[in-house]
Amino acid sequence: MKEELKLVVPTIEYKEQVMEYRKTFLENNEKLSGCAELEDVSSYEEWIDFDNRRSKIYGKDYVPSTVCLCIRVKDNKLVGIIDFRHDLTEFLLNYGGNIGYSIHPEERRKGYAKEMLRLMLIKCQEHKKEKVLITCDKENIASAKTIISNGGILENEIMDNCKVSWSGIVQRYWIKL
After folding, report:
1. Are 64 and 53 in contact (CB under 8 A)?
2. Considering just the CA atoms, what is the radius of gyration of the chain in Å?
3. Element (H, E) at 20
């Protein structure tokens, strides 16, 4: 039986879990995809100031986003983080997409990414989106399967001129809502 998951807006209640999540990824030399630059901050308070912090980083290319924690209901544990970027800049259209996400290394291969993405697609519909773009590294088979299982259709693969992928090739999937 699948465990119930919910998406929540980050609050102080999850401060320790989020910072531990960050630490685990950094110690494993893994990329924190969909985590609103969690790797670049030193405190939770700095991280949750999303709009202010990110608008300074991206300037005119900043787009508002909805960052959610994926929480396993039975034990209130953070299992993933997902970020829905409401609009697409040229960079996001080519490389980043509307949605980025990650699952805690200890919680992978349990179907959480698939369910987390499904829950976020509901939020995208609430924002009146008709379709969203999700990208992944060509070698990230697990992410590709997650996207496809939620209706993703591969549009194309492009050379990664921005070095956001490890293989050098970004796959671009569209999901109609």
Report:
1. no
2. 15
3. helix 15-27
Q: Where residue 1 falls among pLDDT bands split at 50, 70, 90?
A: very low
Q: Where are the alpha helices (DSSP H) in 28-173?
A: 44-47, 50-58, 90-91, 112-126, 141-149
- Please report, as a single letter, which amino acid is at residue 140: N
Q: What is the pLDDT of residue 161?
A: 84
CATH class of 5-176: alpha beta
What value, to the nearest 5°, has the Cα angle with vertex 131 and ends 125 and 137?
A: 115
Residues 172 and 135 sit within 8 Å (Cβ to Cβ): yes
Beta strands in 48-93 (DSSP E): 65-72, 77-85
Backbone torsions φ then ψ of 137, nearest 5 degrees: -65, 140
User: Can you give the length of the chain in residues?
Assistant: 177
The amino acid occupying position 126 is E
**pLDDT (0 to 100) of residue 97:** 96
Q: How far apart are CA 45 and CA 15, in angstroms?
A: 8
Query: Which structure tokens are listed for 168?
Result: 């050098």
